[in-house]
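Reagents: none. Just compute today. Glycogen synthase.
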Amino acid sequence: MKQVLSVASEAVPLIKTGGLADVVGALPAALAGQGWQMRMMLPAYPGLLGKLGETEVVWRDEALFGGPAALHLGRHGGVDVLALEAAHLYEREGGPYAGPHGDYWDNAERFAALCWAAAAVARDGAGDWRPDVLHAHDWQGALAPAYLRYWGTNVPTVLTIHNVAFQGRVGTDKIGALRLPYEACHPGGYEFWGDVSMLKAGLTTADAITTVSPRYAEELMRAEYGQGLEGVMVARASALTGILNGIDDTVWNPEADPECAPFSATKQAGKAKNRKALLEEFQMDPELSGPLMVLVSRLTPQKGIDLLPAAAEALVEAGGGLAILGSGDLWAEDMVRGLATRFPGRVSVKIGYDEGLSHRMFAGGDAVLVPSRFEPCGLTQLYGLRYGCVPLVAAVGGLADTVIGASPATLAANAATGVVFHPVDALALRQSVRQLCSLYADRKTWGAMVRRGMKADLGWGASAARYAALYDRLLAA
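Predicted 3D structure written out:
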């Protein structure tokens, strides 16, 4: 069995702050049938080692970026996990990236240490195990392929960009602390507008670069999406591939979800029960004549949250309602609370995040709104499709790759699975909400869209095969 080491800052079910964790956590099981065995390397955040049961120390460093470190090998959910214990870096009150007072001041060093350990394992092995390929994720893992290249080690490497907006950018005064070679501090290396970009270091050194959808790979080569790295992406276009994310269709399964009444594409009675329960949970009008739309999102400009008033107005006008779950910028939280005050019984808001509630929202909602200005892949629309919650999405990134917008052609061909709008502005969103409400009123057409989305293959099978093929090509080369 060929071996791959996956290095990342989070992975479900051990630690999660966003969609990165879902992808990293799902890949090992998805690859198992593709001839590749994956081990995940993560920082040993507080409590993580305890989740691994009995562990074995397979690597040590007495001076890893300021203190001693040990790499523990354990298992969780049938997956091998390498947890990097380094109390001076990871024993912190708070989350993986920030504490009560904001981002940790030494995040660059914290994740550089993770990358250094991953590169050392790829080069020298850990115990009797050594990977054939190293797969790094986002800026937190990006220095691993860079270190291997700078050391002259010939181990194939892959870097996956989950969101190019986060780049690990720090001042050049950190070059020594990050153990980077000064001679690589130039526009063709890791230098970025006078600073160090940890993500760019990986982009310029990895053997292959992937993104989490084909369209996002294309978008990254354009200034409006590339966040200043579009030139790097164009230069490395031959190494760039878009591989669409999947979802764990055992966790996201409306026929066996403990959070909701069971239902399926052909047996929809449970869907109606879940809709009624969701209206009660959000204290909304039980007699909505239009669609019950849900939004589960970070409340930030990237997610198009400032466009919600246009959506809410059109939806309420058509007899529908909007249930919102999320947290984020204070102005955005205040705005959605204001919408709930303006449209009592029609718009309802819960600030925060609740995994169980998110399942109930997809199970009970008629439609899910994803108005992102950019979206590398997005999982929300995939959960919506799986649960018969028709997606209304912006025509960007993975949203455009996964939702077939309703048009005369796609409706005639019995292919539409949602509503797609462009450009990403209030006028286009308002019109798309009106279109969705018209489709909802046509029960035959709406039912066909719901069933089509629920029957779509949204799992990891096809995507895992593409990752395995990529690893095979790198190993052969």
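The two ends are 18 Å apart (CA to CA).
Action item: order primers for follow-up constructs.
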